[in-house]
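Late entry, written up from scratch paper. The run itself happened at the end of the previous shift, but nothing got recorded in the book at the time, so transcribing now.
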Amino acid sequence: MWVRPYRHFVRGDVQVESFNTYVDEQTDRFLEELQALCRQPSVAAQDWGIDEMADIVTERLRRLGADTRLIATEGAPPVVFAELGDGPKTLVIYNHYDVQPPEPLELWETEPFEPAIREGKLYARGVSDNKGSMLARIQAVETWLETVSDLPLKIQWVIEGEEETGSVHLDQWVDENRALVEDADGCLWEFGYKDIAERPVINLGLKGIYYVELRTRGASRDLHSSLASIVPNPAWRLTWALSTLKDADDRILIDGYMDHVADPPPAAVELMEKMPFEEERLKEDFDIPAFIRDLSGMELLKKHLYEPTCTICGVESGYTGQGSKTVLPNAAMAKVDFRLVHDLTPELAHDLLRRHLDRRGFDDVEIIDWGGEHPSQTDPDAPVVQAAIDALEATYGQEPVVWPTSAGSGPMYPLCEGLGIPAVSFGVGYSGSNVHAPNENIRLQDYVEGIKCMGEFIRRFADSG
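Output as recorded:
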């Protein structure tokens, strides 16, 4: 790895200037490295390129000088674990090297695994979620070592390969390797972005999730639709079962489900009252006339962040191709996810769903679990949070928007809250990054700023009380 001798051992503005100068001079190389990383497919759902990606990340951290190893968990892609630096503080950096499937391919303007730069943006599957933030943090550490001195704290990387399929084995990995990370003082989580008004955003938590398939079955094979007069239709059976889960006003009807939903804590309410939320711009961007129940203001934010969801993600049965085919399907399937708030766990959601269906005579509806994650939230007063706020303000010249939690999900509970480690999240995305969608992208300037922000965060967290 080619580097330039920009070492300085003084604190303050000179140090920051040296760091930022190095980033500016290495920008082309840093972006070429990011493109190479995105060129390697690593789709967990399709078991495509996962081992190769793990090896690439491992080698990159070794070139950085980190003590790096692959730690296996039975049935899961390996976790890349690395350690570097020394000091009174220990920071865990959580990222993932897997990405979402690229389909539908026909909606991509360029190939998803052939990174393309156009109009100041880099397009590729995984560039925002999550390879951009992952590599920006590594490159920031490289920059620190080349321009400042040794790291003023210990950094531990935990980079997994099945986040996009629910991190099914991360709980087990933490149980088996707890001693490696349990003494950390804070965690920098995987994602982050600028909002639709170009304000940098910090997140302090995540909803949980429970993901299932609901399946119904009928005859031994597909039949002619004329037999629908006497043969049960599993597609209707599934439709009737689904209709018991929610009403037309988007209220969840699962017995006992909402009994486990509490009001947001006072600290979260205080943060929400300060949060700008661009309702009209979001409706315009989504091309919708109104939000659910025409909610707005604080009630909209409370629903978004502190109420659970029940979402039909996909339905499949019978014939869905072009033209007509008069068929009575023999099976039907719906994929459903449940976003969970603090007192709802995947285990509880499963039990409530099963009992709800059984009470209504739908004991024949099969529930296939596809994993789940517990909700998690960090105290806004944690030193790692203040270090992040100060770092973003110094980098972007404006106070960041602090979200007390996120409407999304991830395995923050086992790695962070479950071990008593406060977590904060910021990164290199923006509101138009098209995460999980075709034409995923980041802006080049956001990427460069993200590296510089990480340098500020290292300095401020190492100096925090």
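The chain has 13 helices and 21 strands.
(Scratch paper discarded after transcription.)
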